Amino acid sequence: MKIMKFGGTSVGKPERMHHIAGLVTKQTEPTIVVLSALSGTTNALVEIGDLIAKGDRAVAKQAIDKLEAHYQDFILSLLNKPEAVEKAKAMIAEHFEFLTIILKISFSEALSKDILAQGELLSTKLFCIYLEEQGIHHALLPALEFMTIDVNDEPQIGSIKVKLTQLLQQHAGKKFFVTQGYICRNARGEVDNLKRGGSDYTASLVAAAINASVCEIWTDIDGMHNNDPRMVKKTMPIEQLSFDEAAELAYFGAKILHPASIWPAQTYKIPVRLLNTMQPEARGTLIIEEAGSVGVKAVAAKDNITAIRIKSSRMLLAYGFLRKIFEVFEKYKTPIDMIATSEVAVSLTIDNPANLKNILKELEPFGTVEIDENQTIISVVGNEISQTSNIIKKLFESIVNIPVRMVAYGGSPHNISLLVPAAFKTQILQQLNKGMFGLQ
Ligand code: ADP
Ligand code: ASP
Ligand code: MG
Predict the structure, then answer these.
(1) CATH topology for the 297-437 domain
(2) pLDDT digits (tens, 9 = 90+) for 119-145
(3) Residue 123, ligand 1, Cβ within 6 A
């Protein structure tokens, strides 16, 4: 059994849905299709939620109506047969009625998750109506019946496996299955999600749960490129990455993959392929245990980073100092990305400033605390790069004139990270493209 996950742009137009149905039905192996919401929908739902939270109900209603009109229009090109169109019309009306009812209820965090879930619920139901119209036997596997996260928002792989296997047994003999990416249930049984871009994570979790032969991530580009194509003109697809390399790139900002999407595939040894829906014949990127080659493969950038420096005159020979600092971050469930220490100070970075105020207050007794907001982590990733000769020389020669606030080298053998002010992001990515990859 294999997994094919299609992102927002891959389902964002009626003709794209026709096209992906063609790609799916070509498969010889039984296939679970994981779908994102149509492109633009989750952003629109975020906006609707924000408007309701602010009490701007009239504007929220306008946004709901506009989104509904988009869907009612979408089905006219997606479907042909009047029964299919009627079915889709009624289904869409039902979901938007739900959003309109929410307008009248007092707003809560849980309700905002219900709003966000509508995107994937709609896209999968539309796709199934289309498959049905085409006479393609299939089954919809509702993600809310098997995809669960625990109190720490961690997916419960054991229980996902059991529930998904049971659901599949109910449809024995069928070859094509469709499920929602991104959405899940939390420990309280409420509708929740795997964070933005989470459909990749769903795909990898489903692949792990059913021990799939491959997890294919179909998107709008022909694989992982050596640099961010949104920032740099000339970039190249990478043929093969190790799980470790891919995980570093995803975590450090390569948007093509959700930051957490690699570990399930890696743990359960499922190959991942990144493929281009618009160009299915392109090779894309294969992600497996082996890196295939040594040296620099790609750079990525992670935004909205805050750097914190704690300077203690008493750190000299003091043990236990780092532990006390780490405990503060642990208490506020705030992961640290980069860290650099000297005899008297430690600098570290976080990407979630939600508890920054409390963290700073608790760090105060340890010494002078300074923060730099609006920083970017630039990660240079490649198998064993930290042991590749001349890498540091080449790296620093490529980025002359860029003020580097921190460097992390040697923590992982596959990653060298630099912290720079966000204003220098594009410039440093471009300079690295030239200096490390010879691309301009
Ligand atoms: P989907 O909607 O299919 O999940 P995403 O927009 O989440 O697609 O991810 C694909 C996009 O990721 C590409 O269009 C590209 O702009 C962006 N991207 C950022 N960094 C990279 C990279 N290193 N390689 C490929 N794509 C990247
Ligand atoms: N629809 C969700 C988002 O836009 C999940 C995804 O596309 O992966 O973030
Ligand atoms: Mg994505």
Answers:
(1) VC0802-like (3.30.2130)
(2) 999 999 999 999 999 999 999 999 999
(3) no
